[in-house]
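DATA SHEET
Item: assembly model
Revision: 1
Owner: S.N.
Input lines:
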Amino acid sequence: MKVLLSGNEAFARGAWEAGVSVAAAYPGTPSTEILENIVQYKEIYAEWSPNEKVALEVALGAAIAGGRALACMKHVGVNVAADPLFTAAYTGVGAGLVIITADDPEMHSSQNEQDNRNYAKFAKIPMLEPADSQEAKDFVKLAFELSERFDTPVFVRSTTRISHAKSIVALAEPEKHAAPAAIERNFEKFVMLPRNARMRHPIVEQRMRDLAAFADAFERNELIMQDTGIGIIASGTAYQYARESYPDASFLKLSMAFPLPEKKIREFASRVDKLYVFEELDPFYEDQIRAMGISVTGKQVFPICGEFNPATASTGISGAKPAQAAPLLDYLPPRPPNMCPGCPHRGIFYILKTMKLFVSGDIGCYTLGALPPLSAMHTCICMGASVSAAMGMDKALGDNNLGKAVAVIGDSTFVHSGITGLLDIAYNQGACTVIILDNRITAMTGRQEHPGTGFTLMGKPAKQLDYAVLCRALGIEHVRTVNPYDLEQVRSVIEEEVNRPEASVILAQAPCVLHRREYKEPGPAFHIEVAECIGCRACLQIGCPAISWHPDEGAKGAAHINTLCTGCTVCAQICKKSAIKSGK
Amino acid sequence: MNSVTNILMAGVGGQGVILASEIVSEAMMRAGHDVKKSEVHGMAQRGGSVTTHVRFGEKVFSPLIKDGEVDILFSFELLETVRYLGTMREGASLLVNAHKILPPSVTLGKDSYPDDIAGLLASRYPRFELVDAPAIALQAGNPRAVNVAFVGALSRYLDVPEDSWHAAIEKMLPPKLVEVNLKAFALGREKQN
Ligand SMILES: Cc1ncc(C[n+]2csc(CCOP(=O)(O)OP(=O)(O)O)c2C)c(N)n1
């Protein structure tokens, strides 16, 4: 049967067809939907792990125990999982272990655009790279075969345009996989003491040579010989773009990003007049091909930054820029993403702004608090950094920092990697205040469960992390809870805590407005009495999509509330004239 | 030479652009075409600009449409239409939903929403059609069926059997919403004047 599947749906299907028994991940665009789709296959145990390192270790354990296992993450997730990754290359696996890394060229929803093909080379782990959904499904299955045949973890690399693009896939029947009977004990293979690791390293190097030989024999590293004037080496969507722009050229389509098929590359180079490497992001193939002594054109003419598109190949090869028609209008108001109407994060950032605090920030929906008009977040580096960076700031500034700074982190982010930073603050006595925005879900990536939500990925009720108890156990003596919709309470508690020369945590608790299980409309929507509105625009300072400005009304203009209002009350608390009233 | 049809769908997060693209892609596959479709999830969905590329034909390589090769620009919001006009080929069709969503800088009073976009488009683009999809959805009995009503209008531009459309709508919507959406589709498919 043929169906339209996204790359992520196809990865999930491929894992099921391959008889995977355990799948673990932490959400992250563009990888999230892989596990969200895997849960429909009841034979697979699937979990949201607290972070990517845990996910990879869970998968590795399952593989050592003899069950095929999958770990999925976005590109930066591999940074978090890098520690087990590099040593898993040494131990090898039991049953197959596959890691899907979903890269985000163009940073549609990411903080950097690292090219994770580099991880394959760095960690000495083979990597397959599909170019559409059919290959996404096929290559996951193939990855499991390679993993078992070569006794190694195997990467499958996706990008946004693979994960979130749909194309037609032919489905197959699943393989049967019985649960393993018992775990194999193997001291030399699985205990990476220096003496054993020293024995394993040469095995890894031999494996890489064997894999390179495989790459040369692998028919999906495909020579497509047509007009030999131009020869293009490409993989993933870059291959699709180039194939479309140069339908008659010759191609070496790489399906294995690492190791490279050196013989095929040499053969291809010798059969074409002009050789190009067309690869998104880093010159990963190009550098290796140059090192083979082959002359090739790549990043001289194709960009290193941003994602490719169907015009990139012809722009680079012909040098001709596509013509741009004159725009219909000279200026268009931008449409950036915004917090939802009623979002519990909004009031907190409004108060932080009015208090003029330096906000050590983190990643999640709440990062939107960095944008105008709230503009109340001053750093955002990686998950968890808000807490530990606040500690460094505090130690650098000493008494000068008292009352001036705060760290802000989401609940899922805190669980992912904020806990150790908070432990550092407690242990090394930082006078930091950390606000945990507990909206009871991982909102930004589409509302996934996590250890603080009370449910698992598979829908089972679960133990719920008690943040207050945890913080106290770490050594934080001052733990306060606030209602993020009560602005006066938020302000006074933050005021007290930031001025205290000791560590403290403020838990701001209210469910995300999109939280299906927990969110309840707080009350009727609000409206603005135009006669009472003095046009001061104070209510516009929270950037709520439900409030709009009408310059032609009243003496100085007036604000209106539209049907998006959820009745959260934040704007009404800000209005100095009490012109914002409950009810229509 | 190019046997591939390119539809660029544009709108604002929350308007159901992606669902519409799912229905169109599914209908195209059922009608026997190779299909690819691509969009971006995540951050952008929080009220930001959304686009999805739908391509179908004998054999589709790229999941993205090359700038200047859009055959149909299918836009759910007036202002968003203007952002993507440059992607259209000469003589492309332009279908626009008669709906305005104010961007934040406009609601904050810093920018103004451009005047009479529909008039400007009509004067510049001979193959322009303005569709009052919100009104059609209301007429069908559910204001939230706007996106499917609008797909109904799009269906007039594509040579696809009616039953492929129906099957696609049935597959993509929850059972209790199928009937009202089929009705919205049918009303959108009738040429409104
Ligand atoms: C290492 C890593 N993994 C995953 C992500 C993707 N990501 C960024 S923030 C976030 C969680 C956001 O949830 P939460 O902290 O609860 O904040 P909310 O969006 O609910 O406000 C995720 C999954 C990332 N940026 N980096």
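QC remark: The radius of gyration of chain B is 16 Å.
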